[in-house]
């Protein structure tokens, strides 16, 4: 029985084994085929399937860095960037879609699918954009895949348009630069070219700080437009630009701009400039220009008006330069404020004759009186005690011929030729501000060193950079330098104050505050290539309060019409200065005003 | 058992069975065979619970994956929705900030002051309280005096210079976080204002808070419903989208 069973088993076994092996072989072959294909597809990616799939899923988006703002000293925004939309159409899609369906909210609160014809969509779009229906129809009809229907649309309009779901219409977000204060400090702030690159003013010079760095996002997106949560998501965050904080005060800036514009309009001047500076820090509080551009639309004003004339326009300053001559002779010990000068009606030296703006006989004047009545004759008489080199060195010391660096483009350095190139007349005219040119800011800087007791501080316009995280990085002041001694500065201050109390500039006086000032009237050379002079430059520069000078204000008017001797910038100076004093809560002056006698006994 | 297994199974044959018999016990050979009896099979280990457990675990794992997937994609949708809300709030905020900036611009302020009949004072006086001294001669400002040059208002595209007429409408527009367009919000706010004024002074005060505006809107369903049949076009050609009113 047992044997039989064994025989039967041995007879069947090869068959079963063969079948088993065959099956196993088939399976292994199939596995090999499948495995091989898998290896080809997954491992080697023949035909680039995986890559193609990844490419179609992978989307990269540029994350634009936000351009920094420009602020005034109190944080008032002078320039910032906002979101605007360009409404763009794929004309091919729109043109061939005669009608489409969209959900519209109904009165009962439910959305209903409604049919909208192309004509209706176009008229709705036109109404939302505030454009003419035919203009919109022209814009969306055609074969162009990209056509801009409207630019710089505000977010609420964009919202309304996206609800219309017009086929082919897409809103593209763009950054738009806006200048909420418009023409106030417009020339200083500057403007952008095609919304990206600074073209003028602070926008130009501080472009690197303001711009920031664009970021990038790399992610996988499904066909339904949703990001695949488990897919790759690589984010390079954008680095927003820094804010630039200026030293300006937009209220004073407005006041000054309004004042100089009124004055220039009244006297039909070519242009005018007002600078307000804090003498203690060198901070510029206002840089006012006439016809200042509105950076929102700089094309409205002429190209020559789009800059900041306070720093770009160099002109012959005229009598304001007499202060430098007086400071030089006092500091060199060659004269004192009350020293007596006997002045003839005209004064001739080296064959050069000088006269004054008013006719007079032979008078006994003090140096203070020479400055107070702005006499060319007396200035030459006192100034000729300096050698030519000394005159040059003193002008250099006061920053003439040296461009101030305040971060504005096209800063003028003026023209101060070396003494060996001076001709017979120029060597004396430089003493009263002819034959030398400088910008208004250079004049203000020279007066600042007298106001600050002899120490010249470089003017500052950019106060700090504010990083996106809020840290404020102060721009350090440039090195200061001593120009004249403390006592010289004090004597010159007294001379300037006497010019207001005793001299000719009485209309610059402010009730309650002691004021020192100096006027300047110079002949202005023609700038269209003609020889000779075309009109005058009238200016006044002063400081207050004289017990401890805090502010410098200079008013300049280029080529006003009418008789130059009837023109005074005193009232403009006074209103801007008193507004500044009041804004900064400066205490009324104490102590007796300096009253240096103008005539020597 | 398969045949192969049978083949390999060590079969105990009769002769070898005899070999295993203890040698020193010949008498025992004659002993009768043990009668055949039914041998109960050893209790087999039951497999069923294990299989069930496997399937259960599989099901649990699948459900877990499903739940996880659903929650992840729901979160993704939620994220998209919140992003949209954030961006709409950002836009609203930016819009309002711009309006404030526009009102604050010095030339706009000056223009508004002139419109209200204000004149700038020119000469100031000071009183020193510690010394009781008066400096300066303060003179009253003269009405109608030449105001001087006018600095043009900032030409920010699309920025209105004059403040909106209705504060209630402005408040409801501002509080509308969903960013509904102003065309829709304006009639609602105006209607709310109209309805609220005779009833309570609360909303009429025009407090620019969202609560006040909402309260006003809540009190106004009748007025809003009454106003609904006539399509207000406000000079445009598209009727304002219908607004849901709370309580309807």
Care to describe what's here?
- The complex is a heterodimer of chains A (601) and B (248).
- By secondary structure, chain A is α+β, with helices and mostly antiparallel strands.
- Among the domains of chain A are: 83-98 and 115-176, Penicillin-binding protein 2a (Domain 2) (Alpha-Beta Complex); 250-583, DD-peptidase/beta-lactamase superfamily (Beta-lactamase).
- Chain A is 34% helix and 24% strand.
- In chain A, a hairpin with a 6-residue loop joins strand 26 (533-544) and strand 27 (551-558).
- The longest helix of chain A is centred in the first third of the chain and has 43 residues, at 2-44.
- The relative contact order of chain A is 0.11.
- By secondary structure, chain B is an all-alpha fold.
- Among the domains of chain B are: 48-120; 181-223, no CATH class.
- In chain B, a hairpin with a 4-residue loop joins strand 1 and strand 2.
- In chain B, helix 5 (167-175) crosses helix 6 (182-199), helix 6 (182-199) packs across helix 8 and helix 6 crosses helix 9.
- Chain B is rod-shaped and about 155 Å long.
- At the A-B interface, helix 1, strand 3, helix 4, helix 6 and helix 10 of A face helix 1, helix 3 and helix 4 of B.
A few lines on this structure:
Chain A is α+β, with helices and mostly antiparallel strands and about 600 residues long. The termini of chain A are far apart.
Number of strands of chain A: 27
Fill in the CATH topology of the domain at 250-583 in chain A. Answer: Beta-lactamase
Distance between the termini of chain B: 78 Å
Q: Which oligomeric form is depicted?
A: heterodimer
Report the sheet-strand fraction of chain A: 15-25%
Please give the largest β-sheet of chain A.
7 strands, mixed
Strand order of the largest sheet of chain B: 1-2
Could you state the CATH homologous superfamily of the domain at 250-583 in chain A? DD-peptidase/beta-lactamase superfamily
Helix content of chain A: 25-40%
Judged by helices, strands and strand pairing, the structural class of chain A is: alpha+beta
From the helix content, strand content and strand pairing of chain B, which structural class follows?
Answer: mainly alpha
Q: What is the radius of gyration of chain A?
A: 39 Å
If classified by CATH, what would the architecture of the domain at 250-583 in chain A be? 3-Layer(aba) Sandwich
